[in-house]
């Protein structure tokens, strides 16, 4: 026999019973039971009932007639038990040369998820060592799970190592669906190599949990999966079987179970709605059995996950038989239903206390935010809270019984009465009209002291624009460092040139070349800034440029008109970073002086070659040609035969004019300098200036001499 109370059903009971399939009881306060009309005979036996965890209006039951090879009347309801439909088929086996229905056993239905009616995943665990069977079409067809050794019939588990559901009339319930994960099922064998098996594919395959630590040969065991907390399973071993006996609890999805202390026997077990009281678990556990501390049997309740138990009913009461089935409301705390072996069903309603002190606050955290303040925060407990008290001490567990702050309306407190370097320990308690609740877990914080001075400060000029600092870290807690600078010893500014530094180096790139700077460093933490380090100083390097002829090169060149003169120079920089540009001035009109493109240098840059070229013009050649032409003309006149006396004087005059013009063309006329003779010309000599310049550095020049002849 079995019973369930689907959530959201207004605590409607669906109960399975011997001699009849079962009952739908929408109102247990009056006789409203309606028999489930699935069987053909008057006498049949219902065994188990289950609802889909995420669709509780979909309910499945197992039922069959009283004969071993009788017809299976298992089926389902889509409206919470009001009406019922048989499954499309029933699991079968071979019997007497024909096919017989497998008698009803235990049943579970998966969370539906995105599936629709007609595609529900269902598992049946039959009696008499038949293997589990599963359906993935809402019971229309059934298939044998293939994870267990089967006999030749392909249906029966090899009983040499496995024993399953043996007697349908026992109050076993060893098959459950996981409330949170679709297609996940749990199966407890009466006896098997692994006493608990889990399927994650709707019952097709099963994996044994080798360390489940559950009792063997527990013929009347009951397994419950908590619908309020994921991976939370409970098991009672029943009234028969080998030891150990009692209640077993798993918090890791059935991988392992722990036996709860203080319980000598547990026959039935159920999990229902929590009390809603601060400090209680979100669920309540009930079992019928016996504690080791008392010989009296009864129904026990735990609201704290099995840590302690409260007897809510004694047994026997003189009215009822042995409790074999139990179910708890998922919606109403304290509402628990009990089914007896021959006296129908009863339920009880336990009202929670309306006047209780609050539970302990949780998550207390203490944080030092400065050298004079510690901030506390915590999470409020559930239920009624009118205030909070904060207790403080200077040693763990040594909080004063007198609160340092009382009646706080919010879940936070700033303790500003603290001393640097001191450790403080805190607890918090909530209060209401019923009194002061238990203290929270302890939290502590240390009020910081200002850090010590950094040591070993050094300053090294790296370039004209950078001075590098380094120092040894301060002892104690350090959040950051600040650097102070001045241009005179002990004249550092009170405003740091840099702050928030998390390392022990700093590159000062805001310096002026040739200027001496003085530095100090201090460490900072929540308590503030510590003392200054030793003073260190450095002078930003003075940059310079130099330009000179390259080795083996000359600063003068002689070319003929139209030729190109080339000069090879070398630029040398000292302590300079920047871009150098070149210029050339002094070239004669018509000549072109070319210099290199700008170059970027650093203090690491070596000597840089500078090639200067001068392209001369053709003007001097034209003058020479003109002079030579006039000379030839004059000579022609002189050698002409002087035949006409009358013209002799005119010819001489023309010759003199020609020599005059030749002298003018060659610069040899009156007042000219130079000693050219014959047909030679006078050279043209020019002085050129090549300059190199850059931002922040003096310009340098190199003179070049160019002769054109």
Structural summary, described in words:
It is a single chain. The protein is mainly β. The chain folds into six domains: about 1-190 and about 195-205, YVTN repeat-like/Quinoprotein amine dehydrogenase (Methylamine Dehydrogenase, Chain H, 7 Propeller); about 210-355, Methylamine Dehydrogenase, Chain H (7 Propeller), CATH 2.130.10; about 360-445, Immunoglobulins (Immunoglobulin-like), CATH 2.60.40; about 455-540, Immunoglobulins (Immunoglobulin-like, Sandwich); about 545-620 and about 685-709, Immunoglobulin-like (Sandwich), CATH 2.60.40.2310; about 625-675. About 5% of the residues lie in helices and about 40% in strands. Strands 32, 33, 35, 36 and 37 form a five-stranded antiparallel sheet that branches. Strands 40, 41, 43, 44 and 45 form a five-stranded antiparallel sheet that branches. Helix 1 runs antiparallel to helix 2 (about 645-665).
